[in-house]
Amino acid sequence: MALTAELLRQLHRIHTQLADLRDRLDRGPRRIQVHQRNVEQMEAALAAAQDAVKQTKLRIDRKQLDLKANETKVAELKVKLNAAASNKEYQALVDQIAATEMAGSVLADEILEAFDKVDALQLAVAEAQKNVAAGRTELAKTRDTVAAESQVVTGDVARLEQELVEAEKKLPGDFRPEYNRLIRSKGSEGMAEMAGGVCQGCGQKVTLQMENDLMMDKAVSCKSCGRILYLGE
After folding, report:
1. CA–CA separation, 45 and 58 (whole Å)
2. Residue 91 vs residues 84, 86, 96, 126: alpha-carbon distances, Å
3. pLDDT reported for residue 1
4. CA 69, 70, 74, 77 torsion: positive or negative?
5. What CA–CA distance (Å, rounded) separates 73 from 158?
6. What is the chain's Cα-based Rg?
7. Is 152 exposed, middle or buried (0-12, 13-18, 19+ CB in 10 A)?
8. Can you tell me the distance from the alpha carbon of 96 to that of 104, in angstroms, rounded to the nearest whole number?
9. Residue-level pLDDT at 228
10. Residue 9 burial (C-beta neighbours within 10 Å; 0-12, 13-18, 19+)
11. pLDDT tens by residue, 122-135
12. What is the pLDDT of residues 49-87, one digit of tens each?
């Protein structure tokens, strides 16, 4: 069979379309991975926010126990104060009670501040939960979209692959090895249109002899990039 510009144009079109479709198939899983990583980051932020609430509540519990112990100590000191045997002992107990009550006051303030912090942290938890829910919804939508697109694109790939098989049957036997070599190594980039005396693959000007050979449907490769050339319509 003769090597014609029409056949080469058809082959290049098919290879280009197949490359684009296969790239779309490859992008699908990557899109899912991006959303999956986003969800994982949101879940990690949620877990950190929930842990911050937990740890703050534990600190409140410990401070409340300390405050209760402090109040017990003040009560015990007041009992001792009533039984003081001297003015010196009495004054020492008064000072100790004052210091203990001051420490208790500080603890009470810290507990109130911690409760305020818990409220703020719980708001952060609620926001993180919303983010996780939205991220999971977006991930599910992306999976559905990719699955639907993949089904359509896979069908298009199968149709074009069959079209390619039929088109390649028309290639001359002596040209097929060079064609196969370039397609294996460069894919759709193994072919290029020649227009205006220039290889459209690399921009290199071709010789008049190469143009004449192309017009006579001879096999011509770009001397710069090695692509199989064909005449544009």
Report:
1. 20
2. 9, 9, 9, 53
3. 64
4. positive
5. 84
6. 40
7. exposed
8. 12
9. 96
10. middle
11. 999 999 999 999 99
12. 999 999 999 999 999 999 999 999 999 999 988 888 899
For residue 157, how far is the Cα from the chain centroid? 27
Are the C-beta atoms of 227 and 202 separated by less than 8 Å? Answer: yes
Question: Do strands 228-231 and 191-195 pair parallel, antiparallel, or not at all (unpaired)?
Answer: parallel
**CA atoms of 116 and 127, how far apart (whole Å):** 17
Quick one: which H or E segment has residue 229?
strand 228-231
Say what the pLDDT of residue 55 is: 97
Cα dihedral sign, 130-132-133-138: positive
Q: What 8-state DSSP symbol labels residue 204?
A: P
User: 34, 137 in Cβ contact below 8 A?
Assistant: no
Residues with pLDDT less than 70, the chain: 1
Distance of alpha carbon 199 from its chain centroid, rounded?
Answer: 38
- Span between the terminal Cα atoms of the chain, in Å: 20
Strand partners, 230: 193
Cβ contacts of residue 186 below 8 Å, gap of 6+?
227
Sign of the dihedral through C-alpha 208, 214, 220, 221: positive
Beta bridge partners of 198: 195, 205
At residue 69, the pLDDT reads 96
CB 170 within 8 A of CB 13: no
